[in-house]
Design brief:
mainly alpha, 65% helix, elongated
Length: 94
């Protein structure tokens, strides 16, 4: 489990969000900071997906799941459910 990595990314992201908020109040938006913060938060979700995969693979019937996994996402609900089916088939999509 990557608890330390997740915690560090969340702490860093929180500080960046506060900095972004201050710059917005001053009438500026640093698009690079916004993009990097969103990417870091996405990494947290990917770390969690990997932890879920490790837990699922502890069940012998799930040993054929892929080694690489990414947090499922989609613009619409059906896209999200399809992403779950592709990435984490044993996970209940309801």
């Amino acid at each position: 489990m990557k608890n330390d990595d997740i915690r560090h990314l969340l702490e860093h992201s929180e500080a960046e969000i506060q900095s972004i908020g201050k710059s917005i109040n001053e009438g500026e938006v640093n698009k690079i900071s916004v993009k990097n913060t969103l990417e870091n938060l996405r990494s947290v979700l990917d770390y969690l997906a990997k932890d879920i995969l490790i837990k699922l693979k502890s069940n012998p019937k799930n040993r054929t799941l892929p080694e690489k996994i990414y947090f499922p996402y989609g613009q619409k609900e059906n896209h999200f459910k399809n992403s779950i089916s592709r990435n984490l088939p044993p996970l209940n999509a309801r």
